[in-house]
Amino acid sequence: AKYFQGKKVNGEFDIRVEQAVFSELNLAAYVTGGCMVDMQVMRNGTKVVRSFKPDFALIRQHAYSMALGEDFRSLIIGLQYGGIHTVNSLYSIYNFCSKPWVFSQLIKIFNSLGPEKFPLVEQTFFPSHKQMVS
What does the DSSP 8-state code read for residue 46? Predict the structure, then answer.
């Protein structure tokens, strides 16, 4: 936020930066009007909800983890639904939620460049744990 303090877009509009982790966010997206984001913040030991309409997002957190309660793909879908512009594409963030999907994309690069230019750790994919027993 300090890099944008006092800065303006087109010399006219103030830049306001909101920073949160996915677990602090909730949103509603609309066909006709982008989306509204609710952010829970702690102020003097009390949870306070602030609402805003984002114009742009920079996402620096994984949207999906196997840990309990760490699936935030619905927020990525909501940002996409609301047409929010991002630094890193929402398409790439959503695709990165599946590690095997990402690795399959790396295999394409491996096959086009070769193992000398693009080495990969060898892996085997199974659709489920049941197929691993042979």
Answer: E
The domain spans of the chain are 2-97, 98-133
Q: What are 7-33's pLDDT values in tens digits?
A: 888 888 888 899 999 999 999 999 987
Task: Look up residue 107 and give its DSSP letter.
Answer: H
pTM: 0.79
By residue count, the chain amounts to 134
Residues 65/52, Cβ–Cβ less than 8 Å: no
CB atoms within 10 A of CB 11: 6
CATH of domain 2-97: 3.40.50.20
DSSP state string for 10-44: TTTEE-------GGGEEEEEETTTEEEEEEEEEET
